[in-house]
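Dear U.,

For the methods section draft, I wanted the exact inputs and outputs in one place so we can describe them consistently. I've listed the two proteins in the order they'll appear in the manuscript figures. Please don't edit the token lines directly; just add comments below if something needs changing.

First protein:
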Amino acid sequence: MPCPSSSPLPAAVPALRSWVTRGLLLCAAIFAQHAAAQAPVQAAPLVDQSLVEPYDGEWITDQPAGATPVEGDLVLSNYFSEDGYCPTDNCWGPQLLPDGLIYRSYMAGPREPKFQLNHLYEASSEQTFWDVILGGRRGIWRYGTYDELRPQGWQLDIEGAAFVRLNLDEDRDVDASDFRFGVPLTYGWGQWQYKFGYYHVSSHLGDELMVRHPSRDRINYVRDAIIFGASYNPNLNWRLYGETAYAFFTAGGARPWEFQFGVEYSKFGPTGPRGTPFFATNGHLREENDFGGDYTLQLGWLWRGDSGSQFRTGFNFQTGHSNQYQFFRESEEQYGFAIWYDY
């Protein structure tokens, strides 16, 4: 019997092999999916870790009940502190070279560290002067809130200024210049601010004035004083203040005690380009003038930035004893227009 040319078994082998291959692939796919579901997933970091510096302290991982951070307004200091969670700008912490001041300089104070150009007419001498202040005040260290505009807490400041009088009727000669340096420690909480510190002031007669008046003697006016001040805000727009200083070293006719007090008004907060009106008045009493002194009134327009620093321009009136200590025994009546930059 002749052998057949083909058989049913060899013809079934390819079909069987195909079904086995499909089954193995299906099993491999199911296994891979199951393994992937069980394996831990490591998400890619959101921040380049090479750019992140280590931070000493305890990160807050449990957000307090009721805290709802708004995307885009998230502030890192809101969620990190040594004591736990704290709301915006109310977190207390140590800060080196902080922005903003707790106890700000008096706007109408004629001996405050700031920038000033006051073009004035002095009525008793019928002369025209520039009274220029080149100075400033900055924080060195703070333990308190992170708010720049109205910080709370403790702060150590440094201040300095040169008070220069230029005589416009005498080719802008320097008639006198006084120099001040101080280190105030300030504290603020709620509506009250306090200042305690040391300052030095010395007065110098201008070379050009001595050439014009050879018989005039220079006064070696010097004060090294301890100062205490208090400031109160009945509301955000008004400020009342008073301070006293006792000089433990004096020379050139200076005496130990002096007192200063005043009132200020301006709209609180950053003003934007439109600005806001301001009013300021200051009284300064000195023992060397038998507790007389000088009175200052200012009216004008003010622009304030986010840190509380402000630029002002307006009218300046001053009467009483001269604010230049070379002439502290002389009386003056000044009418001027000025620009100021306050810290």
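Second protein (the one for the lower panel):
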Amino acid sequence: MSRPVFVQASSCKTGLVNGSAVGSEIGSVTGPVSGSKAKAALVTKSDKVIPGYPLVQAVLEVAIPRGANKHKILRGTGIFDETFSTPQHTGSDQVSVGGGGLLANTSAKLSAKQCIALLSNVSSQCKGNDVSFLIGKSLGGVWLTENLEKIKHCRNLEHAMSVLMNIRWECFPLVSFKRFDVKDNVLWVLQDTMGCQKNWPFIAQLYLSMLVALIKYWTDTRLPISFGMDFDRPRNVEDFETYLGLRTTFNAPLLSIMLPKSCMATPFPNANCEHAQPVVDSPAKYTAREVKQARYSASCFSLLDFVRSQTLREPQRGLADLAESLCCSTATLKRKLSDHHYSYRALSEEARRQQAIVLLALKKLNNEQSASEMAFSDLTNFRRAVKRLTGLTPSELRAR
């Protein structure tokens, strides 16, 4: 058997397929793998594909004034001053840093493991419950400075999210956004893409704050975005309202963002269509041959999101089938998932729980329609599965 295709994804290409029944994801594989070996090199927690300069800069901008010690923040991360500093010379990947004869090496790459360790240190070192939001807002500003040319001419939010999908490791490396169309709204469900564990709430709040900052830059206003938090109402609820807005609810079934579909097509006030990057055509329109030849960078795809997606697309296939599709042994795939603090079963149940909630609680589909979407032929088994996954019966979910 050939070696696993997990690492060094930047040199590989793959196709991307969306499906309305299971949603589409920003920054994750959604294409079927049955019938052929997976071509994509899936990014894992240890792969250094994330531009580190914006995150480190944003962290230090927030943490140092809060009394945090720079060396303690970087301790155990494998990130050193030399990582982002080079002797002064000219080059496209360096920008001046105040007065020390040094330049910041903006091309240095970090792994998700390093980023998570960095943010874990910050959350424990910094005082205040708003640190995650402040870092997200700062990260939006730093990221815009470094990547403005890539996004400043986006025409509307639909276009902007398409562009962000193609550069996801540069903007949202630790989270993916799974999209569902729910009546007249668009719903994005946030998913842990790298096994953040206990740091996931902090990291999710950081990237939500960053997304709000980017949308505000594009639109010059705050859109009617609703945020659903899947945890109890916190003591610092005012921080959520300050950085995310007043449309924030707690004890929601999913960690999610929702806004009207009309907002997705509203033209940005500063858009320049002559210089705008082309919108990626809906992959659902591709033929099988075009999908195979589509030139999307495989580095857009993480292992966890790939597994989640495949368990929905082909629920009859198990761990061994997925491992074969990835050209590795079952033991290797188990070990890779364990490195991310997940198991195949946990990912599968998480994905199917999300699907059940969207179909029943949000779309209000009847049992027959929902069972069909979830690939159940027997309604009794469907009701039993929904109860096990969500703790509620289908009728109870629809009544929410």
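Candidate sentences for the figure legend, describing the second protein: The longest strand covers residues 175-182. The radius of gyration is 21 Å.

Thanks,
Y.
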